[in-house]
Amino acid sequence: MRIKLDEDRKNEIVRALTGYFSSQFDEEISEFRARELVEFMLKQIGPSQYNQAIQDARKYMADKLEDLDTEFFEPEDL
Q: In the chain, where are the structural domains located?
């Protein structure tokens, strides 16, 4: 899997996940289980989210390239 999170970001997500379980489900989840859940979600939904982000970026760039002619066109006086 090419999708990697640096350790600081992963720790932030683990803290958020343990807090979420505590507040939403009134259930404690260990740091180990939260970390395993993060890894599972990265493997399961990470690739599709990554691919969608690439498609969105490609469309955004293509739209901006199409705007070049209208946005920056300079008439030529011959």
A: 7-72
